[in-house]
User: Which sequence fits this backbone?
């Protein structure tokens, strides 16, 4: 085995450990502050979510917040199933203040739906989740950090699933949420999740809402967060188990590819090189690991022992990282499956990154061009 490969393994392994353990430290230093007490409009955009609405509605009914101090606004984006009828029925039967709106004419897409709901809102603070999500009883209170803020990013986790890649996706999302929180803590807001975010209507109006990116399928979270930060707004991450929202993970490999294509689009459009330094370095590490796996397959006698040492080193680093992160997300049981995910995750990450660069995809019955 050449000295170049050995040198590369040492450099990449040390770089990976430095990045991951620093993220671990940042996550530990993120603390939940006390809470504010404001009136809130919950805005939920939906399209073809008939099978998910019952779970969403049950979780909304369990919210522990004075009913006179919040409203729920459901905005239907031209659903082709029974979603709108279910929303109307929920509004009639619920003791909460529920408004049901519908996009008409040529207006379509999640961002247009959210803007429509925000314009119809009665209160100064907007709380957003998705129609396939489940919120916890103290969600509204927990998503209001003390102090001054204009945008709050909240934690999200996939619901437990039965597919072979469900543990991998849960670990991956936990890492992404931790990375997003870490970057926000360091004043570099890069990642947020539209399934759980809160912002002031004043800040939303100040940046012109989603003007300039309404044509992009995703990015209702990152575009808005970065626009608010660029105008001097204060961005916070709320590390609270009472703010944790659960959502469905992609049901198939095809759905996963489509999800990453949407995510890649918003990342390409709105992230500076300085903000991408940590994600970019992580991807480089994954690329090197993937190339080394290929090298080991074709040169097993030369590369086997270095491969085992590299795997064990990376495994210990990730064990330290996820051992702390997964406690927060109530997914400690996933540590027992970390060993095989260690082998798959870098290769799958690189494949999805490459696959996401170009092509068209279909999402919620609509086709989008990408790349």
Assistant:
């Amino acid at each position: 085995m050449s000295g170049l490969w050995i040198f590369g393994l040492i450099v990449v392994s040390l770089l990976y450990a430095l990045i991951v353990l620093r993220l671990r430290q940042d996550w530990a230093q993120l603390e939940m502050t006390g809470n504010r007490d404001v009136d809130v409009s919950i805005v939920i955009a939906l399209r073809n979510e008939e099978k998910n609405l019952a779970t969403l509605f049950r979780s909304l009914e369990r919210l522990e917040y004075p009913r006179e101090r919040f409203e729920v606004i459901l905005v239907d984006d031209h659903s082709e199933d029974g979603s709108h009828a279910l929303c109307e029925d929920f509004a009639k039967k619920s003791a909460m203040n529920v408004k049901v709106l519908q996009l008409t004419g040529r207006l379509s897409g999640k961002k247009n739906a959210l803007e429509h709901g925000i314009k119809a809102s009665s209160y100064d603070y907007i709380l957003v989740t998705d129609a396939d999500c489940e919120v916890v009883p103290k969600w509204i209170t927990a998503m209001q950090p003390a102090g001054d803020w204009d945008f709050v990013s909240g934690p999200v986790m996939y619901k437990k699933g039965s597919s072979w890649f469900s543990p991998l996706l849960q670990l991956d999302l936990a890492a992404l949420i931790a990375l997003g929180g870490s970057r926000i803590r360091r004043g570099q807001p890069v990642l947020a999740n539209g399934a759980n975010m809160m912002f002031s209507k004043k800040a939303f109006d100040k940046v012109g809402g989603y003007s300039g990116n309404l044509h992009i399928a995703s990015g209702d979270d990152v575009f808005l967060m970065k626009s608010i930060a660029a105008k001097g707004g204060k961005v916070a991450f709320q590390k609270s188990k009472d703010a944790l929202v659960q959502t469905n993970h992609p049901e198939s490999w095809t759905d996963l590819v489509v999800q990453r294509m949407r995510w890649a689009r918003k990342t390409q459009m709105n992230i500076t090189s300085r903000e991408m330094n940590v994600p970019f370095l992580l991807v480089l590490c994954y690329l090197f690991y993937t190339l080394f796996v290929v090298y080991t397959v074709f040169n097993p006698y030369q590369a086997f022992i270095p491969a085992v040492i590299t795997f064990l080193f990376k495994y210990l680093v990730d064990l330290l990282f996820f051992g702390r992160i997964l406690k927060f997300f109530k997914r400690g049981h996933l540590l027992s499956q970390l060993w095989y995910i260690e082998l798959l995750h870098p290769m799958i990450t690189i494949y999805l990154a490459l696959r996401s660069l170009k092509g068209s995809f279909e999402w919620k019955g609509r086709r989008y061009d990408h790349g």
